[in-house]
Hints:
By secondary structure, the protein is mainly alpha-helical. Helix content is 84%, strand content 0%. The two termini are 30 Å apart. The protein has one domain. Helix 1 (5-38) runs antiparallel to helix 2 (40-61). It comes from Pontibacter korlensis. This is Hemerythrin-like domain-containing protein.
Amino acid sequence: MPTTPATKRDYVLDFLKEHLLPHFKLEEQTVFILAADTSEELRQQAIHLQSEHRKLEQFILALPKATDAELPVKLDEVGKMLEQHIRQEERVFFEALQQELPEEKLQELQQQVLEQLGE
Length: 119
């Protein structure tokens, strides 16, 4: 694992490209669309989560502009933003989605996700 602020920044930028952006795209092209078609509450949550995706992306892409003094604080903010986002998805959004979607829709969603992943 990286140990200096600069190497941590580079790691976070690579993580964005390699993992977060594909993950965001997958959710936005499958889960969020189905959620929006399910209920107004889920639609609003999906809009909010997609907005958080853009904020995280913009915040991470701005890391190279941070000064050496700002970088540790900015990296900490990224970590907190990402942790909060994940908790919101897992504890609120996905729980509500599972409660509201009929079993056949959940299976349809699973198939869409697997197709997106190329499996």
